[in-house]
């Protein structure tokens, strides 16, 4: 009797958890659905009332207007170059640093690791003036390196990769050393493939952050041909864009976020695997 009551109680608890998760998911999706709906409405209709979003007419003109800007494909290319460059750089540097902190023994290792983690507490806005002055003195503004290089310092990436390397048993390293494998070979051929879930997760967040970054590209890229998609689309908006072209604004938001959504769809299984692994550890 007690066992059956326990099973029934656990079943009710699981249903409540499932209901809560579904409710939170719906609440999270509502703003996206609202944005998508507005993006297909004529701006003239939205100027009267946004309630018109729930009934025809609908149009794709807001999306076709985006492509009428001669620089949109250049901005997409710039964002792709910057985002991929930042992502690859973070993965390479974080993997090497994580392996060093997790496996190498050297003087001051723990102190240096703490100093790296302190980078998590420093907001980007606190160093933006010094960074701008440095790249200005080097005459590097309006170049890809100027937009990419500041994004390569990822304290979170170093911390994540360090923890993953520490979770891998050292017996694997010792077995590889018995086969006369070098340090780099152990890192590259043995340990690095075991951290693919962590790298995929870090890559997704790095790509997302670089693609959506607005502040630094706005400061560093002053020429239209070097705008990223976020800066470029913001430059097309007038002071009265929200009242005169709300549907166009929503279409811009959907268009700018679509590449990130596609990337996430391809790599979501690695994120789930990484989260599951972290929960087990």
TrEMBL record:
The entry's keywords: Cell inner membrane, Cell membrane, Membrane, Transmembrane, Transmembrane helix, Transport
Family as reported in the entry's similarity comment: Belongs to the binding-protein-dependent transport system permease family.
Record PANTHER family: ABC TRANSPORTER PERMEASE PROTEIN MG189-RELATED-RELATED, SN-GLYCEROL-3-PHOSPHATE TRANSPORT SYSTEM PERMEASE PROTEIN UGPE
Organism: Pleomorphomonas diazotrophica
Subunit structure: The complex is composed of two ATP-binding proteins (UgpC), two transmembrane proteins (UgpA and UgpE) and a solute-binding protein (UgpB).
Superkingdom of this protein's organism: Bacteria
Compartments, as annotated in UniProt: Cell inner membrane; Cell membrane
PROSITE patterns: ABC_TM1
Designated name of the protein: sn-glycerol-3-phosphate transport system permease protein UgpE
């Amino acid at each position: 009797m007690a066992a059956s009551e326990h099973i029934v109680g656990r079943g009710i608890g699981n249903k409540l958890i499932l209901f809560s998760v579904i409710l939170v998911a719906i609440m999270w999706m509502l703003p996206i659905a609202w944005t998508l709906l507005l993006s297909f409405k004529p701006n003239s209709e939205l100027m009267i009332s946004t309630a018109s979003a729930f009934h025809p007419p609908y149009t794709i003109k807001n999306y076709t207007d985006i492509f009428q800007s001669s620089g949109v494909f250049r901005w997409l290319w710039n964002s792709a170059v910057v985002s991929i460059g930042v992502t690859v750089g973070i993965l390479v540097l974080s993997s090497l640093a994580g392996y060093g902190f997790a496996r190498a023994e050297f003087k001051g290792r723990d102190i240096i690791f703490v100093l790296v983690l302190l980078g998590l507490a420093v907001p980007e806005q606190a160093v933006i003036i010094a960074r701008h002055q440095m790249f200005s003195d080097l005459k590097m503004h309006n170049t890809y390196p100027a937009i990419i290089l500041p994004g390569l310092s990822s304290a979170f990436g170093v911390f994540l990769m360090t923890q993953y390397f520490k979770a891998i048993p050292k017996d694997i390293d010792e077995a590889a050393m018995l086969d006369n494998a070098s340090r780099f070979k152990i890192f590259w051929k043995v340990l690095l493939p075991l951290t693919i879930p962590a790298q995929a997760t870090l890559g997704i967040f790095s790509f997302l952050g670089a693609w959506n970054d607005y502040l630094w590209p706005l400061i560093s890229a002053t020429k239209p041909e070097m705008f990223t998609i976020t800066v470029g689309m913001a430059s097309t908006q007038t002071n009265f864009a929200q009242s005169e072209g709300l549907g166009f604004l929503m279409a811009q938001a959907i268009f700018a976020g679509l590449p990130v959504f596609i990337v996430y769809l391809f790599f979501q299984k690695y994120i789930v695997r990484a989260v599951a692994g972290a929960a087990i550890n």
